[in-house]
What does this fold into?
Amino acid sequence: MISAVRFQRVSRHFGTVRAVDGVSFEVADGEFFAMLGPSGSGKTTCLRLIAGFEQPDAGHIEIHGAMVDDVPPYERDVNTVFQDYALFPHMNVLDNVAYGLMVKGTAREERHRQAEEMLALVELSGMAARKPAQLSGGQRQRVALARALINRPRVLLLDEPLGALDLKLREQMQIELKALQRRIGITFIYVTHDQGEALSMSDRLAVFNHGRIEQVGRPEALYEHPATAFVAGFVGVSNVLDADLAGRLAGQAQACAIRPERIRFVDRGEVPGDRLCTAEGEIGDVQYHGASTRYQVRLAGGGELIVIRQNARGGGNGGPAPGASVRLAWDRADIQPLRDAAEDAKP
Amino acid sequence: MPQVGWSRRLSSSLYRRPTLFLLLLLAPPLMWLGIVYLGSLLALLLQSFFSIDEFTGLVRREFTLRTYGELFTPANLDIILRTAAMAASVTVTAALIGFPIAYYMARYAGGRIKAFFYLAVMLPLWSSYLVRVYAWKLILAKEGILNWFFERLHLSWLLDGALALPVVGGASLSVSYIGMFLVFLYIWLPFMILPIQAALERVPPSLLDASADLGGRPRQTFRKVILPLAFPGVVAGSIFTFSLTLGDYIIPGIIGSSRLFIGQAVFIHQGTAGNIPLAAAFTVVPIAIMALYLTLAKRLGAFDAL
It folds into this structure.
């Protein structure tokens, strides 16, 4: 099967800044693919390369098997939902949505009919005559979505589309977007810096850092088996142990990560063995997070671990208080070995 | 209790009454605008409804439309049409020349190049208007540098051909409408470039990306997105160039033939001729033209994007 989008060692430089640095990945047709990373990690540049707003300095990009190196944005079968929505302020909602058809020369009645359909799809039927300035952030977002979908692209690019919305609306839109993608069955490439969003929505995600991809995989795979310290720290919360600390705690001198919810407080009676690792420490800071409580544990021999425990009914969970001496334990299977930093730096 | 100074007390009491504070701040400029500016305009409008007694030469303070009727005598109508035609051609040409410059300044120029362009556009405004007009008179004169250039380039036939044209031509550029047009264009061009540049600067680049993304070719993006959004700037610039040309009485006096323009007519009627009502009526003409123009621009949707 032909990939929807394929990057072959693509680089894009701005002056001395390597925004995208030899990136290769493939997005399958119909997939919800997230590109996750901090700002400046190259994910948005990758999106702009797919859309055609940027040209690669090296490497090649294929869209549905066709090389698009010399294809301008207006001839590519992809559409974009912009971060700031980029709605045309001088047109009403209907004309904004119908724009893609207008530039293709579709007759006014036909394009307005299709635009009405698209507005119905995003539940904005009554808003056709309004100007973008008269809409709320969530409504603008939907207009941008309808406008991008009217050309029936096979790939939809979304650049932090929910970034400007408040939390409640964002969660609602996450569900709606995912449902929409399943219904229309086209490829979504979704740029975000919100790891929760990437984990919950995508079929697969790529984690970007410094213009490179650190890891690509399914959300569970990335969460359970982060390949690098960066991925372990960026996707969810993680205890990243350097080789020294890992050697002391787990008996293997290799950098590794342990998820804080996999560490438990145990009685003095539990001893380390083939399956179990233990450590002694003292509780530092305790943070109540509603559903869980987060403990910072200073280890006896130096270093520190984060432990997260679900809260039970009644608010507390009977956990230790700050200053208490505790023994920690975790399964060896929960130790996730990481590629070391030197290996990270290799292209 | 520490003693609170009167200025502190005043400022805190004003802080609690923002409307009063605003009123105090706005009263002087509003009075200036209301009395001095609008008041004199009103007085002018009033004058235009008076007429002059042909025997005594005194102003008859009775309401009449006779003075407006006088505007439509062939000689006066000629003046109005001549001025309006000049203003219109200067405005259209200024927009055509100004737009690409403004577009380059707003979209492509950065850093030093942009500063250079700003300077180049503004620099002429730093020197005296009169000096610049007289400089142009020398440039355009028969013995002037422009003629010399045309001669050197063996293009004198072109210049002579242009000057041989009826109405707009003349003995030399400095006494022709072509010359006057060039000077008007030079003098008012900055007032066209700057508003267009400001309007283009406000167009977010993502809108251009969005248009291309949706399939808009560069031409379509220009026509459907850039131009409509820059249009308020073009209208603002054209208000400047149009009204400034309509009202100017110095350039037509120095460059061009002895045929009158509105500004000169106003000058003569209120001065030597002492016909203040007719001068006032002449002044109303540019106001009426501008009002008409703005209404038309609004109809065309020039301000929809504001």
Observations:
- Chain B touches chain A at residues 204, 206-207, 209-217, 220, 224-225, 228-229, 301, 304-305 (CB under 8 Å).
- The first strand of chain B starts at residue 51 and ends at 52.
- The two ends of chain B are 54 Å apart (CA to CA).
- The CA atoms of residues 234 and 292 of chain B lie 16 Å apart.
